[in-house]
Design goal:
The structure holds 2 protein chains of 2 kinds. By secondary structure, chain A is mainly beta. In chain A, 0% of the residues lie in helices and 52% in strands. In chain A, a hairpin with a 6-residue loop joins β5 and β6. Chain B starts with a strand and ends with a strand. Classes of the chains: A mainly beta, B mainly beta.
């Protein structure tokens, strides 16, 4: 079975600070990796994804994530956060075949202080 | 519509009553998923429909939960004899099927139905 760990439950940063949110997964096979974001009062939106190829993927709003296979990690980064990045961030994984269910981490609540 | 539509957005019910939650997927998406988001549990998979194939019900927490998908489009999640622990946000997602072997899909989520069982 797959599992996803997000060790940071709540992160508070000042604007312009750099961000890194941790995500580790457990699965024996090849996986697809995702970061979803949920802004206050809004639905889950895809931030970025990794399927194959370059392990450094870039998403919307200046976010990027790096897949490190040896560490089973897919950490999310942003060099300079903005107040509008305040949201909950979810890492997710599914098996690398077909339409597969997503297994989510418990989420990280990010609060940006102006 | 342009996105996944869920109704109602909020539902308050009394313990023991049955509830039905509706999901309208993005037009043309043949894959449909239900997830549950509850405090302390994060997002949990419930059930998955793909075209005319038998659904994957492996995530349903009990036999009080069931879902159907009529005509390959709209889906209804039914919870019978609701309990307080069923209180959560129920999310629906839809996806296009992979067009080629090995291709991938992206799941698009609705805004969810917030269920409160008193």
């Amino acid at each position: 079975a797959q599992s996803v760990s997000q060790h940071n439950h709540h992160v508070i940063l000042s604007e312009a600070a750099s961000l890194e949110l941790g995500c580790n997964y457990s699965y024996g096979g090849t996986v697809n990796l995702f970061w979803y974001v949920q802004y206050p009062g809004q639905h889950l939106q895809l931030l970025l994804k990794y399927f194959s190829g370059d392990p450094l993927v870039k998403g919307i709003k200046g976010f990027e994530a790096e897949f490190i296979k040896s560490k089973f990690s897919f950490n999310l980064r942003k060099p300079s956060v903005q107040w509008s990045d305040t949201a909950e961030y979810f890492c997710a994984v599914n098996a690398n075949f077909g339409n597969e269910k997503l297994t989510f981490g418990t989420g990280t609540r990010l609060t940006i202080i102006p | 519509g342009a996105g996944v539509s869920q109704s109602p957005s909020n539902k308050v019910t009394e313990k023991g009553k049955d509830v039905e939650l509706r999901c309208d997927p993005i037009s043309g998406h043949t894959a449909l998923y239900w997830y549950r988001q509850s405090l302390g549990q994060g997002l949990e998979f419930l059930i998955y429909f793909q075209g005319n194939s038998a659904p994957d019900k492996s995530g349903l927490p009990s036999d009080r939960f069931s879902a159907e998908r009529t005509g390959g489009s709209v889906s209804t999640l039914t919870i019978q004899r609701t309990q307080q622990e069923d209180s959560a946000v129920y999310l629906c997602a839809s996806a296009n099927p992979p067009l080629l072997p090995g291709a991938k899909n992206i799941q698009y989520f609705g805004a969810g139905t917030r269920l409160s069982v008193l």
